[in-house]
Amino acid sequence: VHPEDGAAVDAAYRGGEREGVLEHRIVRRSDGRIRFVREKWETVRDDRGGASRILGTIHDITEQKQAERTLLAQRELLRAIVDTVPVMLTYYDPHLGRFLVNNEFRSVLGWSEDDVAEGDLLVRSAVPQDREIAVHLMQSEDPGWHELSVAAKDGSPVESSWTTMNLFDGTRLLVGIDIRDRMRTEKVLKEYADNLKRSNEDLERF
Question: pTM for this structure?
Answer without folding.
Answer: 0.57
